[in-house]
Design a protein that fits this description.
By secondary structure, the chain is mostly helical. Helices cover 65% and strands 9% of the residues. The chain has a three-stranded mixed beta sheet with strand order 1-2-3. The model is unreliable at 270-279 (pLDDT under 50).
Length: 359
């Protein structure tokens, strides 16, 4: 088998056009999934309530279930189709649909957290409140896979369900509602940013596939039902400019992700380049769950390092500090109980610190 034959086989193996549905079928599928009706809205509210309960009780199963029934993905893929085909009418409809659904989701989640007796910040809420470069990559690849699935002659429902779980649209939006219910606009803002990152890069990944499949560009710019040669020429001329602007805008929007990712890396990598002990080695999740029970007004628990420089010995000392944040100050007995619990599960803790939220 020569190299030429191998190259031909590889090209055929990676040919996205093989098994592609008709362009009209792809359009109908995508736009049909973005159509809003009463059933769609009730399904959205149900998914949001399940996600809110899951985040509030730290239930990963409930969060995954909410993502599986969440209908938001349809409008995101419709937005990608509109960009690929340069169809402004579809784009306005898709963006309007996303905004309407987001409004319903935020009202639902905010009302839930306002009436919920549990106000602690669980690890699920923390996970869905900070966007990183890894979220960008997951959303990008997820959108790619989603559009590829919808473009096949036989739509693979299993693949689309997997994309919905991997890209996680619901949890960050639910976390926004949690922040709004507490008046914590920093938390709400970072969670909203993660949601927007997911939406935009899912759309971008899907757009790449649709452009590669040569989805027809809408040439009827004035909406009169006729495509003139002048309109077609203008559409072909404007398309590269619009797409280039889209890519530049997305890259600029994703810049904060690099900062957040850098913070995460800095907390896990020591200055000499060796990997510091991961938080899981301190049973962080288990301790958090137990502190939620024994600490009145518990807000958060985390492990960090604290460096101090001794000028006399010219040496740098690193200490591992466990910090417990509560809504109000704990008395001596409560602090002693919390510290005893922490030291029971985590070895190597040099200090247990207690902080009051907002002070």
């Amino acid at each position: 088998m020569d190299l030429k034959h191998i190259a031909v086989e590889a090209r055929e193996a990676f040919d996205m056009h093989k098994g592609r549905a008709k362009y009209s079928t792809i359009r109908d599928r995508i736009l049909g999934s973005a159509r809003l009706d009463g059933i769609h809205m009730f399904q959205l509210i149900a998914a949001m309530l399940i996600a809110s309960i899951g985040l509030n009780t730290n239930s990963t199963e409930a969060v995954i279930g909410a993502m599986l029934i969440c209908p938001l993905m349809g409008s995101v893929l419709a937005m990608a189709y509109a960009v690929a085909s340069i169809d402004m009418h579809v784009l306005r409809h898709a963006v309007g649909g996303i905004l309407l659904q987001c409004g319903i989701c935020l009202v639902t989640s905010t009302l839930y957290f306002l009436i919920s007796p549990l106000s602690n910040e669980t690890s699920e809420l923390l996970t869905n409140s900070t966007a990183t470069i890894w979220d960008v990559l997951i959303a990008l690849v997820g959108g790619f896979a989603g559009a590829l699935g919808l473009s096949r002659r036989q739509e693979p429902q299993t693949l689309l369900a997997g994309v919905a779980v991997a890209t996680a649209l619901m949890p960050p939006l639910c976390s926004v509602g949690y922040g709004l219910s507490l008046g914590d606009f920093v938390h709400a803002g970072t969670s909203l940013y993660e949601f927007l990152i997911n939406v935009l890069f899912i759309g971008f990944g899907a757009t790449i596939v649709l452009v590669a499949l040569k989805i027809p560009i809408k040439g009827d710019l004035d909406g009169d039902g006729r495509v003139t040669s002048e309109e077609l020429a203008e559409a072909n001329r404007e398309t590269p400019v619009l797409r280039r602007g889209l890519v530049i805008g997305l890259l600029l929007f994703a810049l904060p992700c690099f900062y957040f990712s850098g913070q995460i890396v800095r907390t896990s990598v020591a200055e000499n380049g060796t990997v510091f002990e991961a938080r899981d080695s301190y049973d962080t999740e288990k301790i958090t769950q137990e502190l939620e029970i024994v600490c009145p007004g518990f807000r958060s628990y985390h492990i960090g390092t604290e460096d101090s420089y001794n000028a006399q010995s010219d040496s740098l000392t690193r200490r591992v500090v466990a910090t417990v944040e509560t809504a109000s100050e704990l008395d001596a007995q409560q602090q002693a109980t919390a510290e005893q619990l922490i030291r029971l599960h985590a070895e190597g803790i040099d200090e247990v610190a207690f902080e009051v939220a907002g002070q």
